[in-house]
Amino acid sequence: MSGVDLRLLTEVFITLFVIMDPPGTVPIFLALTAAMTRRQRISASRQAIAVAFGVIVAFATFGQQLLSYMHISLPALQASGGLLLLLVAMELLTGKMEEPQPSGNEGVNVAMVPLGTPLLAGPGAIVATMVFVQRSDGSVGNWVAIGLGVLGVHVCLYLAMRFAGVFHRVLGDSGTTLVTRIAGLLLAAIAVQLVADAVRAFILSS
């Protein structure tokens, strides 16, 4: 651990923790998995974490090259993620996410999209990770620090979703519905802010 930049590790962990917000994912996770059994919900949490971690690692490793090859700017990625989140927020606010799913296979799709991405591995987390990679000197210690920071946040996310059922039992159906509506409103505000930041970045770069 002597070669690991502990300051960078701490900075990555705190930044991603604030952006990905493990406690804030609980009501959204409960809403997206409302029609699932306990076993399906646990499976969905694992799938969502795997997808989110894979997306973050992929963009950290190849993101800049991919965006450059496709001539996509970071603000464009941020704006598209914001629009996707806004669609999810509208479904949470209108209660569409709580409608019974026709089969268990739907839960797999929900775990990957929109839960795994863009809710967990959203544009904010992706861009932040890419910025940390660009700021690093490319040493093994810095890569390990970034990797440990990303891994630590995903462990927190998994624990939050793994025990989301405890929150559900405490809040009850009515309490969960109320928290879901509030989460949808906050998620809509976050989505609009992402789009606004992207528009501002477009204007400044023009």
Sum up the structure in keywords.
206 residues, mainly alpha, 8 helices
Overall mean confidence score, pLDDT? 83
Poorly predicted ranges: 100-108
Strand portion: under 5%
Strand segment count: 0
Number of helices: 8
N/C terminus separation? 44 Å
Ordered list of secondary-structure elements with their pairings:
Layout lengths: L5 H15 L1 H11 L5 H32 L4 H21 L10 H16 L2 H13 L4 H23 L1 H42 L1
Helix pairs in contact: 1-6, 1-7, 2-7, 2-8, 3-5, 3-6, 3-7, 4-8
What features would you describe in this structure?
The chain has 206 residues and is an all-alpha fold. Helices cover 84% and strands 0% of the residues. It contains eight helices and no strands. The chain has helices at 6-20, 22-32, 38-69, 74-94, 105-120, 123-135, 140-162, 164-205. Helix 2 (22-32) crosses helix 8 (164-205) and helix 3 packs across helix 5 (105-120). The protein starts with 5 loop residues before the first helix and ends with a helix.
